[in-house]
Amino acid sequence: MSQKFQEIINSDRPVLIDFFATWCQPCKVQSSVLNTVKENIGEGARIIKVDVDQYPAIAAQYGVRGVPTLAIFKNGELLWKESGVHDVNTLTHLLQQYI
């Protein structure tokens, strides 16, 4: 996964990473928000989910201490990262800045 993850974040198209856990209730809320964000931005950006229990090394590498944590990458560069649940408008606006 680590090699594939690097390929994904090195894209010239912005990528929003959702670091989540299956047992996390706020993560389930965030997931439904991200479905709407994806509809809003279409092909302008990618949204990828990373289960921190399955890929703890990736979570640790990017300093994920709690879930959900969202991060935006473009060309391998971390542009934004924040923990907690975020609303549709905030995330849509954030991604549109990087498209």
Percentage of residues in strands: 25-35%
Number of helices: 4
Helix amount: 40-55%
What's the helix-strand series?
HEHEHEEH
Tally of strands:
4
CATH superfamily: Glutaredoxin
The strands making up the biggest β-sheet line up spatially as: 2-1-3-4
CATH architecture: 3-Layer(aba) Sandwich
Biggest sheet features? 4 strands, mixed
At the fold tier of CATH, the topology name is: Glutaredoxin
Distance between the termini: 25 Å
Can you walk through the features of this model?
Keywords: Disulfide bond, Electron transport, Redox-active center, Transport. Belongs to the thioredoxin family. The record marks 25-26 as: Contributes to redox potential value. Pfam families: Thioredoxin (PF00085). The active site is at 24 (nucleophile), 27 (nucleophile). The protein is of the alpha+beta class and 99 residues long. The protein has a single domain (3-97), classed as Glutaredoxin (3-Layer(aba) Sandwich). The chain contains 4 helices and 4 strands. The protein has helices at residues 2-9, 25-41, 56-61, 88-98, and strands at 15-20, 46-51, 69-74, 77-83. It has a 4-stranded mixed beta sheet with strand order 2-1-3-4, with helices on one face. Helix 2 links the parallel strand 1 and strand 2 (46-51). Helix 2 packs across helix 4 (88-98). It is globular.
